[in-house]
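ok trying this again, last paste got cut off
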Amino acid sequence: MTDLPPPPDVERGWHYRRSLASRVTLLTALAAGATVALMALGAYITVRMQLQSTLDDSLVQRAKTTATDSLCNSSNSDATSEYFGAADVWVACIDSTGRGIVIGRKADEPQKLLGDPEIAVAQDKRSTSVRTVSGNGTRWRVAAAHRDDGTTMVIAQSLNSQEDLLARLGVVMLLFGLAGVIGAGLAGWGVARNGLRPVRRLTEAAEHIARTEDLRPLPVEGDDEVARLAMAFNQMLTALAASRDRQRQLVADAGHELRTPLTSLRTNLDLLSQVDGAGGGGLPPQARAELLEDVHAQIEELTTLIGDLVELARDEPLTHVVEPVDVPELVDRVIARVRRRAPGLSFDVEMAPWYVVGESPGLERAVTNLLDNAAKWSPEDGTVTVRLIDGTLTVDDQGPGIAAVDRPHVFDRFYRSQESRGMSGSGLGLSIVRQVAERHSGSVTADDAPGGGARLVLRLPGASTPVPTWTPA
C-alpha cells in the first residue's frame, strides 16, 4: 500500500498573511483615501460647473447689453480691451448670413470659429447660444445673443485662465488628499496599536500558558469585547484546571487503591514461592487452598477496580449504541443476578412501565451498582425495597444508613466512609452511577429510608410508553 501524497497547501489570501494591526491601518488608509478622492472629485466638478455657469451668464449678459454702435463700427482691434478690460476676448457683430465685423483678434481667426449655432441666433431662430470651440491651441467659450434692435453680438473669451485655475485647484486637492491619506494611515496605525494592546497581552498570556502550563486566571480590564474574551478565556482556564485536578486526583486515588490489593497479592505470591521452594513438604492442602482462594479474590478485586477506573475515565459524552431501553425488564435482570450473589436477601419490587433512550450496558451497570450497594449493607435476612414510578428508581436497604456528614460525598470517586473502610469495594460504584445518570440527563441522590437504612434515588428522563425507534433509510 503506497503512501498518499500530502495535501497541497491552501493558498491563503494576502490579507491573511498580514498582521491585524497592518490590516486595520491599510483599511483605514483606503477608506480615508476613497473618502478624500470622492470629496475632491465632487469639489472639483462643483467648482468647474460654477465657474462655467458664471462665465456663461456673464458672456450672455454682456452680449445682450453692450452698446454696439461704437463697438461694431470701430476699426480698432483693441476695442475689446477698452470695453471689457481683457485682451483674451473677441467680439463679432454678425448678420443673418454670419458675416460681419470681428473685433479683438485677427479677423480671419474668429471668423473660422463661428458656426451654425451663432448663425441660428443671427437668423432669430434662437435667442442665445453658448458653446466651447477650439482654435490654434486655445479653447474659447462663445456666447451669441440676438438683440432687440435686430443685431446679433457674439462674445468669446479664452478658457486658459479658468483651466489654469482648475489645474492649480486639482494639484492642491491632490496634495491635501495625499496628506489626508497619510494622516489617516498614521491614525489607523495608532488606533490599531492601542486598541489591539489587550489582544496582544492575551496572546502573550496564552503563549505563556502553553509553555509553562500555568493555569492561573488572567487579569480582566474594562467591559468591552476584549474583556469578554478574557473572561471567556479565564472560564476555559478554570475548567481546564478543574479537569487537570480531577485527573491528578483520579491517578492519585487509583494508585492508592491499587496499592493495597497489589501489595497483598505480591505478599501471598511471595509466600507461595518461598514455601514451594523450601526443602519441606510445603503448605498443607487446606492452607494452600485458602491462600489460592485469597489470591483469586484479590485478582477479582483488582479486575473490578480496573474496570471501574476505565469506566470513570470516560468523560466524553454518550457516543455508544443508543437504543430504547425497557427499564423494568433491565431491573428484573439485575435483581436476578444480585439474588444469586446474596441468596439470603429478599427483594420487595414494584415497578411501572418506563422506557428510556440511552445506553443499555451503562444503565445496567448503574442499576447493578445500586442494588449491590444495598445488598452489601443489608443484613443477611434483610429486605431490599425496589420501586420504579415515573422514571424514578428508588432502592432502600435495611443497613445502618448514611451519616449526614458522608451524604454529600457518597458519589465522589474513591470516597469511603469510616464504616465502609473495612469492607470490600473500591469506592467507585456510586461514582459510576452518577456518571451514567448525568450522561443520560438524569440524577442520583442519597437519603434516609423511612424504615431505617439508606435510600438511593435514580431519576431517568423517558416515557411510560415505548419510544419509537428510528431506522435509517
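PB: full thing came through this time. The longest helix spans residues 225-277.
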